[in-house]
Design brief:
Elements lengths: L1 E7 L4 E11 L2 E7 L7 E9 L3 E5 L14 H5 L4 H9 L3 H12 L4 E6 L5 H10 L3 E6 L7 H10 L2 E4 L10 H8 L3 E6 L3 H5 L2 H6 L7 E4 L5 H9 L3 E4 L1 H8 L5 H6 L4 E3 L2 E2 L7 H15 L5 H15 L16 E6 L11 H8 L5 E6 L2 E4 L2
Parallel strand pairs: 1-4, 5-6, 5-13, 6-7, 7-8, 8-9, 9-10, 10-11, 11-12
Antiparallel strand pairs: 1-2, 2-3, 4-14, 14-15, 15-16
Length: 368
């Protein structure tokens, strides 16, 4: 496969005018120069596949229903979103259409589903398009211990939208589940959630969290708690800006060495374009420290995005001897030939609409 650029190795070095040889899903050779019998993507840059670590798929069926509503009015337990999902969510044909048009740019997705009975149907659809899909959900009643077990059995794990609704007597069951499957939670999305101590409530009661989402409101010591317990923070800045007019303290998370991934949150409110979120994260970081290296930012986000949804067999880099996890992006559309900082240009200018194809193992999925 011939490409214009490759983001190579764990240091994300740039190789120009190069080729990649993949055999049985493993990268066998990367070298300068184009080969005669290779597939030609001579306008593309090959980058490691970054995952969208947090979406809510089901509200995509009613776009922009969030307009005119605050956060509790739209996503709360009595909010509009849940009513719309209950009304329309059995329309599996729509979700297949949406996944095939808006989400197949990604090799990996983490999804918080409001109705856990839909985990298996959505997973079947996502697998059809070569997406490593992690459906997380929650019980219909947070006080029903047996329902937690049913969710864990039918889904990829537990995704708790509001930990303050989890009663103390269910925490033992949740802790046991977290030792054998993924448990994730929203934390610090609102002041109320922060003041009631959602993060420490779960962690100090033995719940092993794979990742937490939002973290708009956090105490300084909570970042250290994330590092201590090896928990990824998934930021969704577009969502936070829309609903709260406030952003997470990304720079503090960076300086505390928190694993940092990104998500696009509610698909009914926001275009699921991971590069919008990456651009905002990068902007927040360099506004605090203009000397932060672009490659360090992309390395952390890519590595953490894979870690957040527990995909252990795919690397966050492109290198010989490792399974292929590659996105091909149109280098000409983001003017990489003239760029002083190619990684910076990807984070600032790329869009999922610039994706040409992606490779996961031995499977190539064309996106145009």
């Amino acid at each position: 496969m011939n490409v214009k650029y490759i983001v190579y190795g764990k240091d994300y070095d740039i190789i120009k005018k190069a080729h990649i040889v993949i055999e049985d899903g493993i990268v066998k050779e990367i070298s300068n120069g184009w080969i005669n019998n290779g597939m030609n993507f001579k306008n593309a840059i090959a980058i490691p596949g970054i995952f969208n670590a947090h979406i809510h798929l089901l509200d995509a069926i009613v776009p922009e229903a969030c307009v005119g509503y605050d956060l509790p009015g739209y996503v709360g337990s009595k909010g509009l979103k849940l009513s719309l999902i209950r009304l329309y969510s059995r329309n599996h044909d729509f979700y297949e259409y949406f996944i095939s048009r808006e989400l197949m740019y990604y090799s990996g997705l983490g999804d918080f589903l409001e109705i856990y009975e839909l985990c298996e149907p959505m997973k079947i659809i996502a697998n059809k398009y070569g997406i490593r899909y992690l459906p997380l959900s929650r019980p219909h009643r947070y006080d029903n211990e047996w329902e937690y077990l049913d969710v864990a059995r039918k889904c990829g794990g537990i995704g708790i939208s509001n930990p303050t609704r989890v009663p103390p007597w269910t925490l033992n069951v949740l802790a046991r589940i977290s030792r054998r499957t993924i448990v994730a939670a929203h934390i610090g999305e609102t002041k109320k959630m922060w003041k009631t101590g959602a993060l420490e409530y779960l962690v100090y009661n033995g719940v092993s969290l794979k990742h937490v989402v939002h973290g708009v409101y956090m105490d300084p010591w909570e970042y250290e708690l994330l590092v201590e317990h090896d928990i990824v923070l998934v930021a969704c800045p577009s969502s936070n800006l829309w609903f709260l007019g406030k952003l997470p303290d990304i720079y503090r998370a960076w300086t505390k060495n928190v694993d940092l991934a990104v998500g696009t949150d509610n698909t009914g409110c926001f275009k699921p374009d991971i590069w919008r979120e990456v651009n905002m994260i990068y902007s927040l970081l360099v506004s605090n420290d203009p000397h932060i290296r672009s490659k360090d930012v992309l390395v952390k986000i890519t590595r953490s995005s894979i870690k957040a949804i527990g995909i252990n067999d795919l690397p966050w880099f492109i290198e010989e001897g490792y399974k292929a996890n590659i996105y091909l992006i149109d280098a000409d559309r983001i003017m990489l030939d003239r760029s002083w900082d190619i990684i910076g240009s990807i984070m600032k200018r790329a869009s999922i609409d610039h994706h040409i194809a992606r490779i996961i193992g031995s499977r190539m999925i064309y996106l145009r």
